[in-house]
Specification:
about 525 residues, alpha/beta, Rossmann fold, Dihydrodipicolinate Reductase, domain 2, nine-stranded mixed beta sheet, 16 helices, binds 6-O-phosphono-beta-D-glucopyranose
Length: about 525
Amino acid sequence: MNARAVLATAPEIRANPLREESVTLKAADPCTFVVFGASGDLTHRKLIPALFRLSKQKLLHPQTAIVGFARREWTNEQFREEMKHAVESAGASPSEWERFAGALFYQSGVFEDHAAFRALGQLLSKVEEERGVPGNRIFHFATPPSEYATLVRNIGAAGLARRALRDDHAVPWSRVIIEKPFGRDLQSARELNALVHTVFAERQVYRIDHYLGKETVQNILVMRFSNGIFEPIWNRQYVDHVQITVAETIGVEERAGYYEQAGAMRDIVQNHLLQLLALVSMEPPAAFDDKAVRDEKVKVMRALRRIAGEDLSMNAVRGQYTRGFIEGTPVPGYREEPGVAADSRTDTYVALKLWVDNWRWEGIPFYVRTGKRLPKQSTEIAIQFRAAPHQLFSRDALAGLEPNALVLRIQPDEGISLRFGAKVPVQGIRIRAVNMDFDYGASFMVDAPDAYETLILDALRGDATLFTRHDEVDQQWAFVDPIIKGWASSDSAEGPALYEAGTWGPTEADALIERDGRKWRKA
Ligand code: BG6
């Protein structure tokens, strides 16, 4: 895990945060970073800018090479020219760009072509020799998931990777970074895992969930496990319920081809949302390392009660947006979006009531929701506490009181606030809910690193704490699968509940929480 999240904000550190950080970070070994899908959107938008920023901060070893592989017939020069556009937003000075561009190389080829992989192997050897890289390699799959199996087979067949026998850090090491979605159900995820394991040992596999790279998400662990005051109240005795919201204003954008097959359940719940749930509900790990942290996350995923059969309608709601307004601008309905079937039943919204069946959380519901085209972009976790056991004050005095809540704002307006009742400064007792606020921007005065920057650096350093282990993926699908299957079997009768773009989801989702005498927070 990136040590940046735990830095203190003493003024001298604030004055020069990067210098302090580089002291705390173990330097990454030189390696060759191979990007499959180098002409694609992810490479442009995320990977190259992240690698460039790492290079700019001198966190990328100067001998490290970046080799793009894609179908386009580009030369090294053309690849560099294309990537120059990709780093413009990261503010490259001419000398920084020159240094970075010199590390970029390109091999064109199709993923099915063995000869192209052999050519890639030759290029890697040549580049490694020229730059003095000791054979360490990272393969990043920035391609559609349908290509993953072919890539693994051909990397294996061309002998490009070296299987780690005991230690992933022994030089020369090989690692693979795989983007989500990892499989589309439990069975396909298991098949893909089995195939990946024919070439890479599990300790060489880095499954990305970019949420885990977000500073505020990492801070969930820091907040819980580096402070004494939260842990004693983080359980069924003090907590009434937990709400997790991942709300987006964007629609399906240009991604209908993918999203029609995924829906909100596979796109957000199976990964990002369950990760947030795991971090907020897991037991304290025995150590802060990849094994201990991921062991605890897996345990909590196993404790997640499965929703199936008749529980489905009471505990799970799916929705789909119709046309409406976002910030005053008219937007089309999901079924009117380009590439979406006119009778699509894909979910763009999901709300669930969940139970973590273990000692800590027995009887405490977790209400989670995610949706596209909601009124506001907001990702947050709210721990809502029980009311005071006895009230001294009159009903009138208490009218403005709300339940105590600790709200972890993941994005935007990153921060944490504690909501509690305070006396209104007038004669007599009147109580109103107020917030005690921690705001990331104001407290740290540095721009948080992008999630990809953090995760790529961790992979370069061989730290898998913030990556998803195979048994975690397995448990995530084991939870999500029965819900998707249940919905599919009731498909002919009822599709997703419709909600107007710019509203907080279908009324059925309100009913899901209001049945319990609770309400969704105004995120
Ligand atoms: C991606 C999903 O994993 O996460 C997208 O595929 C979603 O549909 C995105 O919009 C949200 O990420 P972020 O970082 O913008 O919250």
